[in-house]
Every structure is written in structure tokens, then in C-alpha cells.
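Board notes (copied after class):
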Amino acid sequence: MLRIENLHVSYGGIRALRGVSLEVPDGKIVTLIGANGAGKSTLLRTITGLVKAEGGSIRWNDHELLGQSTDRIIGMGIAMCPEGRRVFTDLTVLENLKIGAYLRKDRASIEEDFQLVYSLFPRLKERNWQLAGTLSGGEQQMLTVGRALMSRPQLLLLDEPSLGLAPMVVRDIFSVIKEINRQGTTLLLIEQNANMALKTADLAYVLETGNISMFGTGADLLADERVKEAYLGKRRN
């Protein structure tokens, strides 16, 4: 389980996170929704050691993550798909996937995971020779998720996986998210498409200006009138 307690993070005097507490139980999909600038991406970057916290605690399977290096955190079974895809554009699809496994030594298992990624994303197998920079936006997002899976994470952090993608591709991405979870990976999902995120998630949090303002099951928040008005584009009568 990932347990975050009373987390405080500041950027240049601006309080990005103000005492955030949340839990991501093993085997669940948990989503975090909120407006741009609410602090969602900051939270993921703090979990992975890319941003330093001022105070609080982030514990993963009873190990404190604050103060650990990013490669150490990845080695503990956590991987992140960053916003904006960020593939290595001058490397092939295959080379990008290999980078995801750079901390691993178990060659036989790595080959198994190549086949897993290709089963989830057949298009990547078809294009494994192609430079990542020549892929479509949807294909690059597939590659980003596949690269993260090559580290064989127990916990996968997804930062806006549907951003800028066509609706049909978004449906495919969320279908894969469910399948990844079904195969045993825990997920923490940040997503601007609140409707899809809440339909997919077991548990959900709303983050507003650095504070958790609401918590419940995905279904409960999907039905909440305040969430509908603020994030689903539906006005109260």
C-alpha cells in the first residue's frame, strides 16, 4: 500500500501541496482529479523523488520514500508515465522499451515482459523498429505506458494518459489500464478526463488548491452533484 500523510510541498514560496493525505490500497485503481494547477502532477513527482517535500510522509509497503533517490524508488517497484509522453524520439520503439528495464538483470523475465507489452499494444510490436518520434500521439502514449511496464512495477503512476488523444484512442488506453490492473498492478491515475477516470477507478480523491476536498469510490464521486458541476460539465438545476 502507498500511504501519504500530511504532505507539504512548496515551489518558490508557493504552497503546491498543503497537508495532503491519501491511500492507494494494493490491487486498486485510485484516481486523483482536480483543476489545472491543483497540485496533482506535483504529488506524483514528489512520490518518485523528483520534487522534494517540506514535510509529511510517503510510505510504500512500510518503507519511507521521502529522501530516497528516484532510481532507488523505481527499484522498489514504482514506475511513472509522465505527462506529455516524453519518449526518446531518436531511439526506436524497441530501444525505448529496453530503457524501461535498465535496472533489471533477469533477462528471461524481461523477454516475457516484452511479450506482455506487445500483447497489450500490438501496434508497438508492428513498429518496434520505428523511431519513437515518428509515432502518432496515441502510439507514443502506448510506448510510454509500455516502457513503464518494462520495469515490472507493483505501483504504476499515470499522469494525464489521455491528454491530447482522440476519443477512440482514449477508450483504448483506459481499456489497457483496466487490464494492467486486472493482471495485478496497482495504479494511481491523474486524469483531466474526470468522467473516464471516475468510471475506471475503485477509489477517487478530489484535489483543490493543494488540499484533498473530497474522497469516495469512483461511482460515488461520479454521482456527486458537486463533482458533476465542477468537473463533468453538468450544471445543477
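Comment from the instructor: The two ends are 40 Å apart (CA to CA). Residues 9 and 54 are 5 Å apart (CA to CA).
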